[in-house]
Amino acid sequence: MKSWITGVCFLCCVAMAAAEDRVEFDVRGFGDGASHWRRIKDPNRFIQAEEGQGVYKPTEIREIAANVLLFQRANGGWPKDYDMLAVLTEVQREKVAATREREDTSFDNHNIAPQVEYLARMYTETGEAVYREGAERGIDFILSAQYPNGGWPQWFPKHSGYHSHITFNDGAMMGCMRLMRDVAESKDHLKWVDAVRKERAKDSVQRGVECILKCQIRSHGLLTGWCQQHDRETYEAVPARTFELASNCPGDTTEILQFLMEIEKPDQRIVEAVERGVEWLKSVELHGIVVKRVQAKVVDFEKHQADFDIIVVREQNAPPIWARHYEIDTDRPIFASRDAVKRYELSEISRERRTGTKWYGDWPKKLIGRDYPKWKMRLSEGG
Fold this sequence. Notes:
This protein is mainly alpha-helical.
């Protein structure tokens, strides 16, 4: 009888392991940090990507979750620009563990919210407390980093200079907003979060929306879009890195508008913010040009290597695209190198920046063509 029970238990364990092997969670949120770690040079990182460094498959959820917990700092946050899916060497794991007490935590490059999300899903799937504890510490970190006015800085707790600005760039603030909204609304993988944290998350989202509305740029008296970063006290658009000038930014504007349109019962201020934001995006569409990548001499820059250049050419039937930055009040596309000098043509900035920043894109395309019309229809139907 004992041997039979042992056998059944063994088969159950095998079945559970097999079932777990078929489970996978969305890992796209880790993509930005992974890309920076593997493609952009930074000698200050505590571990460097090795040539041919392996990657866990999405079904290897325990290995990925182990990385997420390993990289989590004592303060509950995570350092930016590392690959949560990397198959680390023993030496790399030891180096990561040795940095646990550092306060190098940042929301930059879509960081922190994806890690919390992953641990929350792991706890929901396995019921193992270690994942719940990690997710709770991450939630608490996000809540503690939020300014009283509802914004989030790029870095926390150590922020100075532009790192202290309210930051929309690279998913910093909106990643926090989406996660806090999901906590407050008890989404399936977050039902287990306690009532106190859910209430704090609800308040967090309300303050965040207020901050977003106050940051929307007015030009000639009209609401338009948003900058990549805004002053934490005045809400004005402000510059960040030398090549990131204070400007109106379609990419960040699109992400913000998507969030606002997902609010179930928007008040009139939110409706106006969305309508004026979409109107502005439509007004700054660029027609008749395409952006091309052309072969060029290989150059090793400080942060990256490039065997190409980026040029803009005329093409009559080209689909609409948008510039990354528009000059406030004139709506002219603007560009800059690391000298912070404003230019009006991509060809006028350095090749290092032409190849190191995405200066054009179609970020608002789906919002304008699909999501905004659906939103308008929902409002007209009383939804």
